[in-house]
Specification:
single chain, alpha/beta, Rossmann fold, GMP Synthetase, Chain A, domain 3, 2 domains, 23% strand, elongated
């Protein structure tokens, strides 16, 4: 199913806007809520790539904008840490009513601290993952800096975060000061994963150590070495999502994968963001992509690389099947492939589209105590693998709209 925009209301009646991303395979699947960074939104690079990594592992994700941010209604200046926690619970209520109760909460930065608080109050949540989270919510005061005094004197001040201005009122500061994470963590009865970069210049890694030592088992820590606080590098964000997806399987039951309900053998999904393409082939999921220099994320092989892979895999399997049937000592097959378009003859008619032909360069390495005669016979067999024969014959296409 494609991802789609959803709306729900918080406890103050404000409409919050989220994006619900469901795995390509048919459900049921566990649901996760993603809570974004302080003054951020659901569409930040980290949120998108973490959600994609979770989706590929069969986990549905709802990422949404907190009150007064992104597309959500409300006045940000009237919000605080407590309202963020309430917004997470409102998102959970929406999922429980329309889909299924969320079992996972993931929070980034201050959203991570809010995930701890919200998770501690929600019985259905079995696992919480924090990314670059402060030990105490009031750590965010350092982002406000010199404006703290102005807020105390005048009741409010305007701060700038990522070249955007936000009004912070005294009630926001007071609410942060009333929170004590130690009281939450000491009775925390959920699986906890703490992810943090030692190079984080916004929330120092000592915060992760404090959370870890205060929490009870089951708890885990994973370093995001080399990443910055915002996880602006897509590889860091995608890695983070992959780690969370692998870790959470120990604490949240992921249903067995089942074949798609389609009359075809393969299903492919690509939305209007980049070229990262989800593929379901029978019970198996994989990803295709394009290189970064043409606008892709390079999260998977390109279509032509997959074509090469198909031919290479079929060649290797065919050779091993033949050798095993003959009881020949073929230990390992390695197939190196490349594809390009070449002129049939020395470009006498370069402008004619038919003057070019698809060309596969297939180099086969056979390891084993084989005779020269056996090697030459295996080379002949390589050209008879089913995929090779399919590519070598006339092919018809029936392309139509569903």
């Amino acid at each position: 199913m494609p991802s789609h925009k959803v709306t729900f209301h918080n406890s103050h009646g404000h409409q919050l806007v989220g994006k619900l991303e469901l795995p390509l395979k048919k459900g049921p699947y566990p649901f996760a809520i993603f809570a974004h960074v302080f003054t951020g939104n659901k569409n930040l690079k980290a949120a998108r790539h973490i959600s994609r990594a979770l989706n590929l592992q069969g986990i549905a994700v709802l990422r949404f904008d907190f009150t007064g941010l992104g597309e959500s209604e409300g006045d940000f200046s009237n919000t605080n840490f407590s309202s963020n926690v309430d917004d997470i619970k409102a998102a959970a209520h929406f999922l429980s009513k329309h889909y299924d109760e969320p079992s996972i909460i993931i929070g980034h930065s201050l959203g991570g601290a809010a995930a701890l608080y919200a998770g501690s109050e929600m019985n259905g949540v079995k696992a919480v993952a924090t990314i670059g989270a402060p030990f105490q919510p009031e750590h965010v005061k350092h982002l406000i800096g010199d404006s703290i005094q102005e807020i105390h004197d005048k009741g409010a001040a305007i701060i700038t975060v990522d070249n955007r201005e936000f009004t912070i009122r005294k009630q926001f500061i007071d609410d942060l000061s009333r929170k004590d994470t130690m009281e939450i963590i000491k009775d925390f009865r959920k699986a906890l994963l703490i992810l943090h970069s030692p190079q984080d210049m916004v929330v120092e890694i000592e915060n992760a150590a404090k959370i870890y030592h205060a929490a009870k088992h089951p708890k885990s820590f994973v370093t995001l070495n080399g990443a910055n606080h915002m996880l602006n590098n897509k590889d860091d964000a995608f890695y983070t999502g992959g780690v969370i997806a692998s870790w959470v399987k120990r604490y949240v039951e992921l249903p067995e994968k089942e074949k798609l309900r389609t009359t075809k053998q393969v299903m492919v999904k690509l939305e209007n963001d980049g070229f990262t393409t989800e593929i379901m082939a029978g019970n198996h999921g994989l990803v295709a992509d394009e290189p970064e220099d043409i606008g892709g994320n390079d999260f998977g092989p390109s279509p032509y690389e997959l074509l090469n892979a198909s031919l290479g895999a079929c060649t290797a399997m065919t050779l091993q099947m033949y050798a095993r049937r003959k009881k020949w000592p073929l230990d390992t097959v390695k197939v190196h492939l490349s594809f390009d378009r070449r002129y049939i003859e020395d470009c006498a008619s370069c402008e004619d589209p038919k003057s070019k032909i698809s060309h596969f360069d297939v180099c086969i390495n056979l390891e084993g105590n084989l005779s020269q005669e056996q090697r030459e016979r295996l080379l002949e067999i390589a050209n008879k693998c089913p995929v090779h024969r399919t590519l070598d014959e006339e092919v018809s296409f029936n392309t139509y709209l569903e």
